[in-house]
Amino acid sequence: MNYENILITTENNIATVTINRPTKLNALNVATISDLHKAFKILAKNDEIRAIVLTGSGEKAFVAGADISEFAHFSIEEGTQLAAEGQEKLFDFIENLKTPVIAAVNGFALGGGLELAMACHFRVASDNAKMGLPEVSLGVIPGYGGTQRLPQLVGKGRAMELIMTAGMLTATEAHGMGLVNHVVPQEELVAFCMTIAGKIIKNSPYAIGKAIKAVNANFKEGKNGYEAEIKAFGKCFGTQDFKEGTTAFLEKRKAVFTGK
Ligand code: COA
Question: What InterPro entries does the entry give (predicted)?
Fold first, then answer.
C-alpha cells in the first residue's frame, strides 16, 4: 500500500513507521492521521509484525503538533469532531493495539506530537528532543488525549504546570519525570528502539497483547484493572504460546512463539 505522508519499512518482524512531512515538521494533518490509521490497522493484522517503532522524518521533529493551518478557522462543531475522530482513529487506536508500539521521539514532540508519543506504549527520546503541550498558547487545549495521558505518566501537578505554562521539556527533563524511558544520541535512536523491540519479540505475542490490555484497563473508566488481569491471565492458559513457553522452559530450550 502507498501512503502520501508516511513511510514503512520492516526488518526482522519489526515495522518502522516514519511520519514524512519534514518541511512541515511532520505536523499531523487529516491525511496523515488517515494514513497512520490505515497503516496501523494493517500492521496489527499482520502476524509477522511483532513490534512497531514510530518516528518522524528528518532531524528536527518527531511531530510538531496537529496541523494548525487546517483547524485555524474551525467552528465549535468542527473542533469537537476533529478531536473525536483523531482520538478514535489514531490515539486510542494505537494505545489499544495488541502489537507493541514504541515512540522514537527524534526532535520536537509538541501538542498532537507529544499526544501521539504518549498514546504509544512507551517512549525513547533523542538527546535533542523537546516536548510540550503548547495548545493554550493558541487559545485551545490538548484535544488528542493530552489532558488525560500526561497526568497518567508524570502526575497531575507536573501535567498541570506543563499544560498551563505551554512550556517545553528537554529530553533530560522528560526522562526525569518518567515521560520517556531512555534518552540516547539522535543517530542511535532508531537502532536503540530496534534493540528493545528485538527483546520484546522474543516473547509471546499473545501474552504481550493481553498484558497491554490489562495495563490499559487501569486507566479506563468503568473497568477494574485487577479483574481484567485475572481474565487475561486465565485466557493465556488456553494458548499454544503458553504450552510452548512452559514446555520450552522445562526442556531447557528457547521457546518459539506463534501468537496463537
Ligand atoms: N502546524 C502546521 N505547520 C507547522 C506546525 C504545526 N503544528 N509546526 C510547524 N509547522 C510548519 C511551519 O509553519 C513552517 O512551515 P513554512 O516553512 O511553510 O512556513 C515549517 O513547519 C517549519 O516550522 P518553523 O516554525 O519555521 O520552524 P522553527 O524551527 O522556527 O520552529 C517550532 C519550530 C516547533 C518551535 C515551531 O514550528 C512551532 O512552534 N510549531 C507549532 C507548535 C505547536 O504549537 N504545536 C501545537 C499545535 S496544536
Answer: ClpP/crotonase-like_dom_sf (IPR029045), Enoyl-CoA_hyd/isom_CS (IPR018376), Enoyl-CoA_hydra/iso (IPR001753), Enoyl-CoA_hydra_C (IPR014748)
Q: Whose CA is nearest to atom 12 of ligand 1?
A: 24
Query: pLDDT at position 221, please?
Result: 86
- Give ∠ CA 234-237-242 in degrees, rounded to 5: 135
Please report, for residues 108, 247, 257, the alpha-carbon distance to residue 254 in angstroms, rounded to integers and kept in the order given.
Answer: 40, 10, 10
Residue whose CA is at the smallest distance from ligand 1 atom 41: 64
Contact 179, 168 (CB under 8 A): no
How far is ligand 1, taken at its centre, from the CA of residue 245, in Å?
48
- Span 219-241, average pLDDT: 95
Sign of the CA dihedral 116, 122, 128, 134? positive
Type of residue found at 154: V
Distance 27 CA to ligand 1 centre (A): 8
- d(C-alpha 241, C-alpha 238), whole Å: 9
4 has catalytic annotation: no
Element spanning 147, H or E: helix 146-154
Q: For the chain, how many residues are written?
A: 260
Given this model, what pLDDT does residue 205 score?
98
pLDDT > 90? residue 166: yes
Q: Taking the model in full, what pTM does it have? A: 0.98
The three cell numbers of residue 147 are 489532558
Ligand 1 atom closest to the CA of 133, numbered from 1: 46
Please indicate whether residue 85 is annotated as part of the active site: no
